[in-house]
Amino acid sequence: MTTLIPAPKAVRAHPPHQPGRRETVHKWRRRFPLLPALIFTVVVTQLPFVATLIISTLQWNILKPGERHFTGLSNYAFVFTDERLRTAVLNTIVLTASVVSISMVLGLGLALLLDRRFPGRGLARTLLITPFLVMPVAAALLWKHAIYNPDYGLLNGTLNALYRLFGAENGPTIDWVSNSAMPAVVVALVWQWTPFMMLILLAGLQAQPGDVLEAARVDGASAMATFRFITLPHLRQYIELGVLLGTIYVVQTFDAVFTITQGGPGSQTTNLPYEIYLTMFRKYEYGEAAAAGVVVVIGSIVVATFALRTIASLFREEVSR
Amino acid sequence: MTAHAAVAAPRSGLRKFLRRKDDHGGPPRLTPGWTFAAWLATLAFFAPVAWMVLTSFHQEADAATNPPSLLAPFTLDQYELLLGRDITPYLLNSAMASVISTLLVLALAVPAAYALSIKPVEKWTDVMFFFLSTKFLPAIAALLPVYLIVKDAGMLDNVWTLIILYTAMNLPIAVWMMRSFLAEVPKEILEAAEVDGAGLPTVLLRIVGPVAMPGLAATALICFIFSWNEFLFAVNLTATNASTAPVFLVGFITNEGLFLARLCAAATLVSLPVLIAGWAAQDKLVRGLSLGAVK
């Protein structure tokens, strides 16, 4: 990577008398401000992961004290063969893929609209980002009780009002969460994540160089062609960034599952974080939970590798600018 | 406008809608049809929040009707009830955990960002990506060892445990954000100041400070939001003394004997600090959420 950061002047200002020692001292003076943050991060984030690795090789259930022993990779064998965990993996993929893709499409639509002038645009943007700002647990409870509730929720209430409007006695009483648990969770999360996608894409649209678009227009390109061949390629890295950051966060979804469905009915909406939580605090199988955690980390690293590459390309652009 | 024109507007608008720079200066306008669509979508997204706030000002009896009663008499009873006893300690814990961890994050991140931008150490991009990579480790995978360590240290149900965890959770974001703001300090001015013999304190106060201040505020805001909303660690590592606002809300999960109006009041109340902060700083929000990768 080429950087255009100029060579430090301070070195030139003081010609070193004792090159070796001077330089070392200088280097450490420069590194010093970085160290507290670096050491703190290593201790608080890396050590637990090492501990997880170790625990994942133990047979350890706190309901059976004294039976803790090394068990090799058998927890991993369990993780890969257990029916519940396989369901959880599948649910995690379904949940993440649908939330990220739907909110990306909706976010793109909204960003294209908000990139234009219209009366009240500022207010519309403020209202639109609100779902992302509502506390996730509060949002999940709001959907569960105020919207999905079969007896007094907003959805059935609106249906009921519509039925009465057209002369019927009463609307249907649909138990949304029990009938279609996964869509219920997905809708609540899409509602929360669409503003995030919109914000990133809007930033991308507004970073679009105007002269290129102008040139396309002068050359007589149709609006559709301009969008397809100029705007969309320009947006690509913003779309990638949104998808990848969204994926990283949505894979970790815990609040919504815990609150809206508690993984149910059965294990229809149990995703990996919730399943690991259950293994840890309901079954007390620490070894299994740790092994599942390691598997999640490996999965995240795969996704993160792509995310880092995307961010690195944006980052490179900025640095070499 | 005739009904026919109103129907036709969106279609003819599509072409105009996808074109920028229709008129000189500023982005082009939306046609009335698309403006309507934009507002419809906006209101659809905002409706649940509006419903939450509206319900929070109703009595329980008016909140749980079917169909919903929009214009029931307004009351502050729910808020009075909540603030009267239940929620206050939770809000205080949340405030303490969020504010102190945000201050700690800034204390650690600002020097680090300085070392990564203004006078970059060698291999600074590697360090940046190390910080970022820690954000990609799912919190759930760290929960068990953290729980065990905290339990052994006798630190369960202690606000300081949350403060340390939230600091670690937000530090990488803050380093990235602050670096991207500090990188905007013009190098020429820094060099000129050094040639003139200005010491480090002067350079920081006079040159870096003014440029970095808005960035510092934005970073603090993002850290505050993430800490205030955090749930996984709060619900699993605290019990009675140190529980935060999201943990208070969990009490509303069951359907039996649910107080909908009070739930809505509680949800509104705990979301309010972040809503106000987020609305006030929307421009900076995107930069923080994308770790400074997008301006």
TrEMBL record, chain A:
InterPro entries (UniProt xref): MetI-like, MetI-like_sf
Localization annotation: Cell membrane
Protein's membrane topology: Multi-pass membrane protein
Transmembrane segments: 32-55, 88-114, 126-143, 181-205, 289-312
Pfam families given in the database record: BPD_transp_1
GO biological process: transmembrane transport
Keyword match Magnesium: no
Region (Disordered): 1-22
UniProt family annotation: Belongs to the binding-protein-dependent transport system permease family.
Protein name: Sugar ABC transporter permease
Species this chain originates from: Streptomyces liliifuscus
UniProtKB/TrEMBL annotation, chain B:
Keywords in alphabetical order: Cell membrane, Membrane, Transmembrane, Transmembrane helix, Transport
TM helices/strands, residue ranges: 36-54, 90-116, 128-150, 162-183, 203-226, 233-253, 259-281
Highest rank taxon of the organism: Bacteria
Pfam families assigned to the protein according to its UniProt record, in alphabetical order: BPD_transp_1 (PF00528)
PROSITE patterns: ABC_TM1 (PS50928)
Entries under CDD domains matching the protein: TM_PBP2 (cd06261)
Domain ABC transmembrane type-1: 91-281
Single GO cellular component term: plasma membrane
GO annotation (BP), single: transmembrane transport
Record family assignment: Belongs to the binding-protein-dependent transport system permease family.
Name used for this protein in its record: Carbohydrate ABC transporter permease
Species of origin: Streptomyces liliifuscus
